[in-house]
Amino acid sequence: MTEGLYQWVENIAFYMVLMTAALHLIPGDGYRKYLKFFTGLLLILLVISPLLKVAGMEKTFEEVFQKHTYEEELRKIEEQTKYLKEICPEDYLPKDYGGNNPQQDRMQEEEIAEEREKEGGEEYSE
């Protein structure tokens, strides 16, 4: 019990030192308020973590967080899938490969013209 309490106080002290160093490294006051808010939330979690362990809520809290994270990742994947279904791959391919992208075709033609200029402009010495 005493060792757990000592570890808890040590974690809070280390966190406070790290937080203070981070606040001093941030130039200007623009991001300082956001950093203080975020570090304050972390400090609250750090302080109540032993209480959650005693009450048996630590696992429940972790499960809720994992569920929320999973749902957020699933939502992002669904959005990306929807976007990929909406785009037409042929719009990004040159005509040589079955596409209909005039900008890509122009770029290819310019590259070919540049290569021909280099070949024509080079002097051959044997």
TrEMBL record:
According to the record, the segments passing through the membrane are 12-28, 34-52
Pfam families recorded for this chain? Answer: Spore_III_AF
Keywords from the named record:
Membrane, Transmembrane, Transmembrane helix
Biased composition of type Basic and acidic residues is found at 115-126
User: Region Disordered: what ranges?
Assistant: 91-126
Lineage, top-rank taxon, reads Bacteria
State what protein this is by name.
Answer: Stage III sporulation protein AF
Q: Which species does the entry assign this protein to?
A: Faecalimonas umbilicata
